[in-house]
């Protein structure tokens, strides 16, 4: 609904009405037109258009944690039951990208309760600069990746956009809720596809509904985690020693004094050793309540914050490192070791629930970070996805 059309309508319809009648008429017509405009802007994408031409292998896949350990499906599944919900954006009124983004976000708010992952296609956006415009048009507090566990670079500081993880392309990143190991985590995660991988080259962003995962998990495994909680430990060496992850990158500072308050804000206890290396630990529940739906949600990274996650990475191939000297590791909350079978069970069940979809350049994926896990299939060739987070 453009201002021009609304003004013209007001002039025609106002006639001899009193001011209050005029306002009522405008409000009624405006909302009717708004609904009609929404219907004409958004159009469902047929499921077939979201299905990839080639199925990505999961079982026995190289550089995928646990893939040879049993229970993995052979291939990544196709989208099912409108997950993700694909929506084409028509721009017949030649609205600006910021105006269309605002409409998309209205659509998200209306549909998130039943569709927690929505893929918008055909927005007039193809570049990182246009993703910045999208990010700036989204209401909500921008969140940084400070305290995160993946390597990424900031693309536009003022817009708050980042690259998605730049871990080695051949590595397959396991499903996870973004920063569920921190006290401060995003409620929404936005991914923007700058360049999709070529057919058959991987690079999908598989999605998992947390409630599907929980419904398929062994209740005894779940109960043990619930009773004992999780202990996340992190080892962040000083960057001078050139190791994979360092505290300067993680906390975006060169000053040691900045780290402690920031780590404590995320709920961590802090220890420095004499080499200037940093150790963090925190205990967390494995469940949270969704603030909108009230649903009890499996929300943790027992498996993808575990030393075995890093052991499968090309970066650590053939290196002998104790579990607690990987960037992250997880124990039960009492400090006892999590059984490898329990980790394998979580991994295999998550992949059993995962669906992949076909990215197209310019796609915008919006996820409820509490309801949906995301991941990345290892890829070859060129593939670029950007990210943005809101609290
Ligand atoms: Fe992530």
TrEMBL record:
Residue span, TauD/TfdA-like domain: 95-385
Coiled-coil ranges from the UniProt annotation: none
PANTHER family found in the cross-reference section: GAMMA-BUTYROBETAINE HYDROXYLASE-RELATED (PTHR10696), TAUD_TFDA-LIKE DOMAIN-CONTAINING PROTEIN (PTHR10696:SF21)
Pfam families: TauD (PF02668)
Name under which the protein is recorded: TauD/TfdA-like domain-containing protein
Organism annotation: Desmophyllum pertusum
Domain of life: Eukaryota
InterPro entries named in the record: AlphaKG_dependent_hydroxylases (IPR050411), TauD-like_sf (IPR042098), TauD/TfdA-like (IPR003819)
Keywords: Oxidoreductase
MF-aspect GO terms: oxidoreductase activity
């Amino acid at each position: 609904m453009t201002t021009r059309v609304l003004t013209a309508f007001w002039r025609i319809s106002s006639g001899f009405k009193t001011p209050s009648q005029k306002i009522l008429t405008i409000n009624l017509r405006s909302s009717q037109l708004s609904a009609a405009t929404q219907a004409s802007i958004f159009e469902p994408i047929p499921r077939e258009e979201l299905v990839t031409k080639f199925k990505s292998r999961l079982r026995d896949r190289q550089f995928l944690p646990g893939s040879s350990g049993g229970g993995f499906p052979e291939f990544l599944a196709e989208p099912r039951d409108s997950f993700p919900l694909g929506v084409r954006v028509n721009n017949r009124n030649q609205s600006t990208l910021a105006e269309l983004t605002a409409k998309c976000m209205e659509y998200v708010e209306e549909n998130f309760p039943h569709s927690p992952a929505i893929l918008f296609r055909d927005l007039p956006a193809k570049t990182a600069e246009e993703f910045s415009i999208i990010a700036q048009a989204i209401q909500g507090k921008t969140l940084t990746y400070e305290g995160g566990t993946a390597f990424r670079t900031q693309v536009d500081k003022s817009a708050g956009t980042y690259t998605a993880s730049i871990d080695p392309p051949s590595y397959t990143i396991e499903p996870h809720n973004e920063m569920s190991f921190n006290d401060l985590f995003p409620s929404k995660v936005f991914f923007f596809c700058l360049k999709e991988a070529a057919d058959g080259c991987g690079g999908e962003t598989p999605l998992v509904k947390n409630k599907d995962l929980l419904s398929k998990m062994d209740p005894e495994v779940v109960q043990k985690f619930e009773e004992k909680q999780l202990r996340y430990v992190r080892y962040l060496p000083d960057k001078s020693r050139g190791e994979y992850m360092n505290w300067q990158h993680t906390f975006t500072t060169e000053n040691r004094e900045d780290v402690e308050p920031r780590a404590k804000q995320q709920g961590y206890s802090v220890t420095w050793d004499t080499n200037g290396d940093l150790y963090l630990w925190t205990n967390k529940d494995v469940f949270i309540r969704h603030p909108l739906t009230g649903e009890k949600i499996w929300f943790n990274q027992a498996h993808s914050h575990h030393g075995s996650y890093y052991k499968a990475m090309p970066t650590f191939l053939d290196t002998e490192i104790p579990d607690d000297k990987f960037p992250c590791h997880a124990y039960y909350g009492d400090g006892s070791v999590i059984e490898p079978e329990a980790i394998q069970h979580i991994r295999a069940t998550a992949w059993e629930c995962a669906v992949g979809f076909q990215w197209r350049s310019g796609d915008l994926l919006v996820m409820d970070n509490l309801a949906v896990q995301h991941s990345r299939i290892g890829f070859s060739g060129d593939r670029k996805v950007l990210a943005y987070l809101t609290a």
